[in-house]
Amino acid sequence: MKAWLASCLCWIAIIAHADQAAPPAPPVQVRVHAVPSGSLMQGETARIAVDLLTPDFFTDAPVLPELHVDGAYLSLSDETPGHLVETVNGQTWSGVSRTYLITPLMSGAMEIPSFEITAHVGAARTPVTVQTEPLSLSVRALVLPPGVSEALIAGSVKLTQTVTPQDGSLHVGDTVTRRIEIVAEGAPAMMLPPTAFAPVDGLTLYAASPVTRDAVDSHGGFVGGDRVDTASYVIGHRGHYRLPAVTVRWLDSRTRQWRESTAPEVRFHAWWGAPDKPRFALPERGFMPRLIGWLSSDAGLAVLLLIVLGWIGWFFRDACRRGWQRWRAWRYRRHHSEPVAFRAVRRQRQASSAAAVAEAVDAWVRRAADDGAPASVSAWASRYGDAALRAQWAGVQDALYGPGGSAWSASALVDALGSARQRWKHSQRRWRHRSALPPLNPFA
After folding, report:
1. What is the DSSP pairing of strand 222-235 with strand 175-185?
2. Which of 99, 259, 318, 320 has the fewest Cβ atoms within 10 Å of its own Cβ atom?
3. Among candidates 102, 195, 192, 180, which has minimal Cα distance to 156?
4. H or E stretch covering 418
C-alpha cells in the first residue's frame, strides 16, 4: 500500500512539472558588419565581424556555420572570441564576437546571405537560434600592371629559400632539394601563389605537395598566411646547373604600390661518381672492379687525361718546340710592326714636348724603312708629304736644336704624317697589284 501511494505521488509530481510552462528564452541580438567599413578591394582580405549580444550571459561559444559565397574566398577565423559590453535602453548587454575572413575575387556588388547562429544563453536548457540579416558589400576592381595575371595584396611578403645539401660536393645521382617559403602579412594561405619550379636539362624534377597554414598571434588573431613549396632535383649528368630565381609580385596594402620579393637563383656543379661510401657496405670486391671504379671517378679520369696529354707532348715535342718559336717570332713582329709604331705617334697628338714627339716619329720612320719606306722625315716630305709636313717637322727641329722661334703643333704634325702614310700605303698596293706579264692575247 505504501509503495503504491509513493508511485502515485511521483506521477503527480511529474505531471505537475510537465504542465508548468518553460521559462522564456532571453533575447539575443545579432549584427553583421565589415571591418573596416566601406567598400572592399578585389583580392584584398578583410574581416566580417559577427556580434551577438544578450542581457543575460552565454554559457557556451556560439556555433557559426561555414559560409559559401560565389566569387569570394570566405572562411571562419579561429580568432579568440572578443567580449562585448554595451548599454541598450538603459540595460547592460554583454556578448561575444566572431570573425569571418573574406577575400573577394570579383569586383562589383556582393551579398553575404542570411545564416543561422546557435547559442546557449542563461539557464535555458534549449539552445537559441537567431537569424542574421543579409550583408551587401561593394568590391572595387583591381587594375593589374602589364605582365601580372594574379594579384597578391598583403602588408608584407617575405620569401625564404633553403637548399640542401649546402656543402657543394655533389655527384651524379645525388639529390638537391629546394624549399621556398612564402610568408604574407594580411593574406590567407589559400591566396598565396604556388611556386613554379622550372625544369632543368640534366635534372629530374620531383615536386612535393605544398604545405599551407594561416598564422595567428598569441591571442589567436589572424596575422597572415604561410605557404611552403618543395622540389627535389636528381642529378643525371655531370656539369654546371642553374636553378632560376623565384619572384613574387605583390601589392602593398598600405602604400598601394607594387613590389617584388625574390629568392635568388641557385648554381651548383655535379661531378661524376659518388665518393661517399655507403653506411652498410657490401663485402670488399676484387682488385679489378675496384680499379675500374676508381678510373671512372673524377680523380681517375683526371689522372688518365694528364697521362694522355703528357704522352702527346713528348711524342710531338719537336713540333711543339717549332710551333712555340714561330708563335714567339710572330708575337715579336706583331708588337714591333709598323702599325704599332705609328699608333705610338698618334698618341702624341696632344703632346707639348718636342723631344717626345721626335722620339716617337723617329722610331716609326726606322720601322717603316724596313718595309721599304723612306728612311727620314725629310725624305717622307719630299716623296709623300706636302708643305705642311715640311713646316711642322722644321718647327720640331727648331724647337730641339735651334732658337725655338718656329711654331709647331703636335696634332698638325700627326695629321700630316698620317696623310703621307696613306699615300705610301696606296702606292704599295698599286705596285703589288701590277701584273708582271703582258696580256696573253692582246688581239682578242
Report:
1. antiparallel
2. 318
3. 192
4. helix 410-433
Distant-in-sequence, close-in-space partners of 29: CB < 8 Å, separation ≥ 6: 52, 53, 54, 88, 93, 95, 130
For residue range 123-169, list pLDDT tens digits in order.
777 788 888 889 988 888 888 777 777 778 888 999 999 999 887 77
| Best CA proximity match to 192, nearest among 209, 210, 167, 172 | 210
Contacts of 228 (CB under 8 A, 6+ apart): 179, 180, 181, 182, 210, 211, 212
Are the C-beta atoms of 172 and 268 separated by less than 8 Å?
A: no
Kindly state the helix (H) or strand (E) to which residue 269 belongs, with its residue range.
Answer: strand 266-271
Write out pLDDT tens, residues 83-101: 888 887 778 888 888 888 8
**127, 169: one domain:** no
The CATH code of the domain that includes 201 is 2.60.40
Decide if 70 is inside a domain. Answer: yes
> Which ranges of 230-353 does DSSP label H, i.e. alpha helix?
287-295, 298-315, 317-335, 338-346
**Greatest CA separation found in the chain?**
166
This prediction has a pTM of 0.55
Exposure of 330 in the CB half-sphere (CA atoms within 13 A): 6
Please answer whether residues 137 and 106 qualify as being in contact, where contact means their C-beta atoms are separated by less than 8 angstroms: no
Report the number of distinct structural domains present in the chain.
Answer: 3
H or E, element range at 183: strand 175-185
Grid cell digits, residue 380: 717622307
Shared domain check, 160 and 223: yes
Given a contact cutoff of 8 angstroms between Cβ atoms, the answer to whether 173 and 150 are in contact is no
